Every structure is written in C-alpha cells, then in structure tokens.
TrEMBL record:
GO terms for cellular component: cytosol. GO terms for biological process: trehalose biosynthetic process. This is Trehalose 6-phosphate synthase/phosphatase. It comes from Hydrogenobacter hydrogenophilus. Coiled coil: none annotated.
Amino acid sequence: MKLVIIANRIPLTIRGTDPLIFVRSPGGLVSGIDAFIKKANISDWVWIGWVGSRVKKRDLEKIRSTLIQESNCIPIYIPEKLLDKFYNGFSNKTLWPLFHNMPDLATYKQDEWQSYQEVNKLFFRALIDNVEVDKDTYIWIHDYHLMLLPSMVREFYPDAKIGFFLHIPFPPPETFAQLPWKRETLEGLLGADVIGFHTYEYTTNFLRSLSRVLGIEHSMGELVYNSRIIKADTFPMGIDVDKFNVKDDEIEEQVLSIKQVLHYKKIIFSVDRLDYTKGIYNRLLAYEDLLKRREDFRNNVVLILNIVPSREGVEHYQRMKRQIEEKIAEINGYFGSVEWVPILYHYKSLPVNELIAHYRACDVILITPIKDGMNLVAKEFVASRQDLKGVLILSEFAGAAKELGEALIVNPNSIEELSKAIEAALDMPEDEQSFRLKAMQERLRRYDILRWGNDFISSVKEISSKREILKTK
Ligand code: F6P
C-alpha cells in the first residue's frame, strides 16, 4: 500500500531559509497523522502540503529538495496574492467560524472563495505532478481547507481510492445552509469514497445537509452519487498512548522542578492554540470567580495558562489576544502579591516533553472550548498520568467528551458551573481521581491512533471494492 496524505500543512513549518530551519507544525492533525504513519509502520508514504509560512519562490527549490529527501514531504508554494485570501480569509474567516457554529463571526467574500478554489487546484496539481497513483494508492485528504479536492482528484482518477477526514465539527444543516457555496462544497467532498468525522453528531449533521442541499438520501451512512457508493462515518481520532505514557527521567525531573518552583501549590493547567472557539476568556472569568468565593485558595493555587500563537493575521484572533491579556493583568493585579502570582501566562508552543511534564505536574487541567472538533489535549493529559492523579475538566462541546465521560463535564458558557467544577476538582479525593482516570485510560488504549487510521483505511478499501463490484454488474 502507498499512502498519500494531503493536508493544508506538512508536519514541518519553515522558520528560516538561510540556513533552512524547520519546527514542528502545530495542531492535532499533524501529530495524529504523523503518529499513525509511524505506528502502522507504513514505509511507502508521502505528505503534500503548505510549508506553514510565507516563503520566497526563489527559495522553494532548496526547501523542496530538502523536504523530499529528508522528510517525505512535498511542499506546495501558495503565491502571496492567494495565501491571505485562502488561509486567513475563506478557511479561517468563513469556514472556521461557520463550522464551529458561530455564524455571526463568518464573512462571505467572493474573491476569498475564488482563492480557495484556486488553492485547491494547486494541491491537485501537486498530486498529479509528483505522485504515481495506482490501484494500491490511498489518497487521504484532510480538513476544511481542502474540501473541493476530492472531486478534482476523482475526475482525474475515476478509480482511485480516496478518503477525506474532517478534523473540525460539521455544523447543523441550518448553519451550513448559510454558506453561499454550500452545493459546491458538498459536491467537492463527494469525490471521496469515505468521508470521516470525529463524532456521530457531525456525521449526522453532514448527512442531513446532503439531504437538504442536494436531496441525497442515505442508508446507514451509505449513499449513491454519480453511480458511485460513498460512505459517511464516524472515526473518533485517538492518540499514541505510549508517547504520553512514557517513562522518562528527564520528564520526571521537569515535573519536580515545576512543583518546587511553585512551592508545591496546587496547579491548574490550561493549554490551547489562541482561538475564540477555545473558551479561554470564560475560563479566566471562572478562575476569578473562584478566587473571589474561596479566599482559602488565594496564595495556594496557581493557574499556568499556556497559549500557543495561532492565525495571527486574522483580526478576531488579535482582538481575542488583547482581551485575554487584559483579563490576566486584571486578575494578577487585583489578587497578586509579592509572594504569589495567580496566573503564569506563556504565549508560545511547548516542546512535547515539557508539555508532558506540565500534564504530570498539574492537579487540574481545564479544557473548556465553546466548540471543538475533538481536542486531543484532553486525551494526552489522561494518557500521561501514570500516577492516576489529577482531574480533567472538559467541555461538553469538545468531541472528546463523547469518550471521556468520567471527566468533570461542564458547559463552558456558565461561569458559575466552571468555577464550581474547578472547586470540586481541587477538592476531589485521590481515590476518586484514580477511579476516573483509570476508566478513561483503558478506553484510550482500546481506540488509539493506530486503530483510528486502520479503521479509516479499511473503510476506504471496503467502499472502493464495492464500487468495483457495482461497475462489473
Ligand atoms: O484542528 C483544525 C486545524 O486547522 C488543524 O488543521 C490544525 O491541526 C490546527 O487546527 C492548527 O491550525 P492552523 O493550521 O491554522 O495553525
């Protein structure tokens, strides 16, 4: 089998061209697929995507040959005039808010839609120019940036095995219907054999949209379009449990040092990309409420708030950053003292070992998005706690809540509920912590990243062979 991954980003982001400097790309998509390729021992694979930052066309050849030789990646050059409208524009100002069911934040611009179409064509060209596609090739397209690509590929390779996986939510049909280009988007996706989602809710939303917009009905997720069988199904993305469950002295030293530096105060940890969907501001309001209500926590609790820079070119993200930073300053200014800073704020991405050390050092982790496709951080935290201690507070609106029911599940829109959940977590007896973590860890082991990828690929195999049978009838 040959696996061709096509996603907006390759797993490496370029930070400098002279000399060439690469860092790991952010986000769950990259870490998940990377882990799947390794765990499944796939040797024949290639990954097509954007290099993650603006590069000059003249540097591309050097970047390209290094990436192809050293990392199996084929970088795509997106011209400056398309990049902003494609990435900051249509992908992140139209699709992102709409798919997270925040239609008031979505904008609809014809020129951005055009750029989106053109960039999808660039990805298509990169595939046909660089990869030999045969009957053993699986073309696996990822996420909302590339929803037109499956049909482009299907038209060129009618018999290809094509899968598409959406890493963000699919909104209810009433919300999706607001997209002026809804028909084109759905028709684009229907080029795939299998269209995968993280939760049953998103799969159902997609199938209901198909019925509403294109009048296509299904039976158990299977439907026929252009005389082809297509399947929409649920594949909740897992993690590489061993990577987070690792025994490592260096990590343990870091855990100890975090605890020592903070004088063994209780630690609440929070880590997200900076995004208005993540509910970071409400989290701060809840912490503030807690400090007001429970004076005994003052001086004894620290919130480590780690925010990973993201989409800095989009105004809404810039505004969000200012609001969050003002609130942090207000809380620290009001409650803080020479001995105690209530919130330790870091605006950077953490290397994986440091991240694991934070997961292990904390007493409570706060993951409270307003809406989130899956949220792998929740799963990583659970997997990393070999000591079976620590409490996960998780929003009911994260896809992960469907699998992690032993967490303290909260509605992030209620500051009171959040504040009470933090209080309950800080007061939770250790045996209850262990009981909850153990159940979740067992579930994570059963449906890990390997199982997720294998299930998806098997489904593509099954549906494409049904297509072949249909053809011979
Ligand atoms: O989860 C959705 C997603 O867009 C992923 O594709 C990616 O892993 C993550 O968010 C990071 O976003 P961006 O690529 O815009 O930095």
